[in-house]
Amino acid sequence: MDAKIHDITAPICINRGKVNIPRPRALEFDIREVGHDLILGKGNPVKYLSNILTINLHMATHYDLPSTFGYRNFPVSHITPQLFVRRAVIVDAYVSPNRVKPLKRKDLNLTPRLEKEFTEAPPNDKPALILRTGMYRHWCRDPDKYMRFPGLSKDLIEWIAGDLEPPIVAIDAISIDRTMEYRTTNMYPYVEEEFLLQVRKQENLSLLNHDVLLRKGILILENIYPETLPQSMSTGLLIAPPIFRFDCKDDCNIHAIPARPLLAEPSPEADELIRILRDIKRMIA
């Protein structure tokens, strides 16, 4: 496969043991070094270093899933690779400094040719939509600015969900909604049914854009980092599997999954790439 691979995963920025990444106050993130003794037979213990990572699953580059807002129709243990390996259309919608109004459809640089990638594709073969706003430039550099993404307008998000219908919407910002620290700082150790009922009733609250997309089963890939993408790049092959693979034998609900997205150019056919990956798996099994 003669293609250049771009890593669009947001880095975890560590400076002298301290993590400097933007996050709402309610979301926990911590990494620390620990030491271990490994006993091998009757010999002296082998000492080695490791790290303990504590992370809220809605941190860094991650998928928001339909279950985030109480929709249980997305079986996370039956996700197929085809969902996360597909064509992608990159649309520029740069946010100017100090902008407070949400992005509108006219702010998107989506040409008629690229729009046809969505409207003329079969339902199971629609590309992912990648929104490049420029907010990623503040990641790890200016957390306050990064936390002030103005979000997408109601009309824009409904047009994306109703007309384009991408299976995945990716964005280089902390959220597709406005993010002026509206999130609660309370953490819920247990989720009761009444809480889930209230979640389903919040269409008019601050996370409306999430609700509109996730209600239709459109996954949201937040906090991507398109630093190395050429300005002229408008299409590619998105390879964005979740970091973890879950097998829920009982009734378990996963609400977000960290991901490691890559973007290939020129774009090889997704089916051909999956075949190559499967061949490699058989060779090393």
**By CATH's scheme, which homologous superfamily applies?**
Putative cyclase
Strand order of the largest sheet: 1-13-11-7-8-9-10-6-12
CATH domain class: Alpha Beta
How many H/I helical runs? 7
Strand content: 15-25%
| Rg | 20 Å
Structural class: alpha+beta
Residue runs with pLDDT of under 50 for 5 or more positions: 180-189
Helical amount among residues, as a percent range?
10-25%
**Level-2 CATH architecture:** 3-Layer(bba) Sandwich
Q: What can you tell me about this protein's structure?
A:
With 285 residues, the chain is an alpha+beta fold. It has a single domain (55-284), classed as Glucose Oxidase, domain 1 (3-Layer(bba) Sandwich). It is built from 7 helices and 13 strands. The strands form 3 sheets. The protein has a 9-stranded mixed beta sheet with strand order 1-13-11-7-8-9-10-6-12. A hairpin with a 7-residue loop joins β4 (29-38) and β5 (46-55). The longest helix has 15 residues, at 270-284. Residues 180-189 have low confidence and may be disordered.
Structure summarized in a few sentences:
This protein is an alpha+beta fold and 285 residues long. Helix content is 20%, strand content 22%.
Question: Main attributes?
Answer:
single chain, 285 residues, alpha+beta, Glucose Oxidase, domain 1, two-stranded antiparallel ribbon, 7 helices
Write the layout of secondary structure elements.
Layout lengths: L3 E4 L6 E2 L2 E2 L9 E10 L7 E10 L6 E3 L16 H4 E8 L19 H8 L8 E5 L10 H4 L7 H11 L3 E4 L21 H8 L7 H8 L3 E4 L12 E5 L16 E3 L3 E4 L4 H15 L1
Parallel strand pairs: 7-8, 8-9, 9-10
Antiparallel strand pairs: 1-13, 2-3, 4-5, 6-10, 6-12, 7-11, 11-13
Helix pairs in contact: 4-6
